[in-house]
Amino acid sequence: MDTALDPIQRPELTDAQWERLRGFGVPEGVAAGDYLFRSGDRDYDLILVDEGEVEVVRDSLFWIDEAVLARSGPRTFVGELGLLNGQGAFLSARATTAGRILRVPRPELRRLMAEDDELCDIILHALWARRESLRRGPAALTLKFVGQGSSGDFLALQRFAERLDLVHKTVALAPGELGAHEKLGLTEDDLPIAYIQGEAIPRATPGMVAERLGLSYQADGDEVVDLVVIGGGPAGLAAAIYGASEGLSTVLLDAVAPGGQAASTSRIENFLGFPFGVSGGDLIGQASLQALKFGVRVYAPCEAVKLDPVAERRLDVTLADGRVIRARTAIVTSGAAYRRLDLERWSEFERAGIYYAATQLELRQVMESPVVVVGGANSAGQASLYLASNGCPVHLVVRGEDLGGRMSSYLVDRLMEEPRVQVHTGANVVGLDGGSALERVRIDRLGDVDARGLFCFIGADPATSWLPSLDRDADGFLRTGTDIAAQSLAQWQRLGREPLPFETSVPRVFAAGDVRRGSMKRVAAAVGEGSSAVASVHRALAN
Asked: Is the separation of the CB atoms in 70 and 121 below 8 Å?
């Protein structure tokens, strides 16, 4: 990374802007060589350089010397996007000359973002631009993933890092290859490996990495938050953004990473305001940044396993690791779990060739190789076109006889015109074959076809099994508002009111998006439901 930052990363502040910014900081004198924060610090401050110079350094790792990434002089600030999402420092900052700085602690930075729109936009643009620049430079070595390219566990680490926009580097190994990692006493059984600041973590999982980076939930004393949103898809992100922007202390949880199924959509054609379409990843990325702007505390992977009302005005959300989040209200936006085909070796190939998304991440695994897509709705059509446009011959397998039965007409037309896509209606995938990775797929009306990947889009089941006390329909979707069964309504009499829109059978617990009975199962609809549910949250809190 060039040590000279561009104007977005290092904005020129007016006298008035600089004085307002200084008002949030605590002054401190520094000597040459003093570290202002170190990589690995769980909590650190935004640094305002009043006098002197500060350099940002990627510390030396066991295989490489330190690298100076940027230098900042007077009337500049030092920090990057991790200040907003709670991530610990992965770089160090030290003074190169004697001078004077001001420290802006994270709570004060959040107050600044809430109270001063002009400074908020300037700082947010700079922190985001710095994060994007760091992703392409030597800072990426501070978080390094090593694994076999076909491994589902390795792919899970990559998906986690990319969804959270973490600065990282990935190294894919061929089967049986370990190279220099073997000299560290590591074996193939230790894959995937995460190197965090040079320290090897064998058999790494997203949860282990999140814990080490400071991205897992930590209770703040006896804190009770106004709103906990469970699920980070479009509905959850919308709910969290609207809640936080309207003054509610808001926590957003996701069992994997923010985005849900929308993040795995290669192209959304019909979302308002994007006439040329938008990838799910881009849409979710901008929404996640917006959530940080308004002070949403985002934790992932962070799985909720239990939700209990423990008092008239308090809920306890229990996480998979036993930690408990105390909240006044909750919105369940946990979405749905992907359905699987009942085939031999399915579980085996889920780690080496079966995918439930078609994004750039999956594309890299099958680039220009033949693939099979299963499904008859929009997601399958969009995936087929995306894969074909990137050089993959595609067999689209549709169980129904009419391709237009569940798919938008514009997708049907484009599929019929795409020479790389062969559509097989009234067909089923009946077998899988290959060695350590998927190599062939058997289609009942066609026989065996070569396939380096099988992309499965056959629907999903609502993720509600962890909510047995909430009223659900026969398929597991949550009933809300006037749809709640009559036998569940008796408890509302003592509250002196009926269930609010989007409220479940448990008072102050709401549901939105794909998990809710009667929802439209579209990205735009999910965004609308998530934001609308917050209006009911305010009414419940005021009651």
From this structure: no
